[in-house]
Amino acid sequence: MRSRRGSATTLSRKTEKFRVNPFAKVFLCATSLLAAIVVLPSAIFASGVDPTTVYARAWAVLAAEPYVKQGFHVREDYWPGDLASGERKAVRQQLFKGNEYWFWLGTEVDRAKVSVHIYNSDGKLAEQPDSWAKAHLAAAHIIPKTTGSYFIIVSVEESPAARTHWALAYGFR
Q1: Where are the beta strands (DSSP E) in the chain?
Q2: Rounded Cα–Cα distance for residues 117 and 59 (Å)
Q3: Domain boundaries 51-172, corresponding CATH code
Q4: pLDDT for 42-100, tens place per residue?
């Protein structure tokens, strides 16, 4: 039977072999970061994801940032699309009574005006009055009174682009 002291000495000798000097750690981290910067964008775009959709989602998630600080959890899934000026798209989502939701819409087109609104299954506007739209970002807030299907209406009010890519993200608490 080994003494505890002997096994501790053995363990420390083993770990000494695998110590990496600080310069090597920095070099490995920098190399890994550089590889990620070079390889990741080409991997994203090679996978068939439209880069404008990636930017639109980034704007939508950026609009969510203040709400995350208030305790909202942003879901990883999102809805992408593209619309011409004046067009709308309906997205159906199951929402649950007792939860609170925000839906954030973003586009990469700076001078575009977008909006998002939430309707219940009867077609009545169900969003809270603190919903907002600011240029190429918009958000709608809802505290469902009943569990059920709700319709989130995304629209591009104005845009200098023929087709405006958008992404709709959402969060709950």
Answers
A1: 73-74, 79-83, 88-95, 101-107, 113-119, 132-134, 137-142, 148-158, 164-172
A2: 18
A3: 2.60.120.380
A4: 544 545 567 778 888 889 998 999 999 999 999 988 999 999 999 999 999 999 999 99
The pTM is what?
0.71
Residue 164 near residue 112, CB atoms below 8 Å: yes
Residue pair 79/91 in contact by the 8 Å Cβ criterion: yes
Q: Which amino acid is located at 31 in the chain?
A: T
Determine the Cα–Cα distance for residues 74 and 31; give it in Å rounded to an integer. Answer: 31
Per-residue DSSP letter, 122: T
**Contact between 85 and 162 (Cβ < 8 Å):** no
When comparing pLDDT for 3 and 53, which is higher?
53
Q: Residue 34, SS3?
A: helix
- List the chain domain ranges: 4-46, 51-172
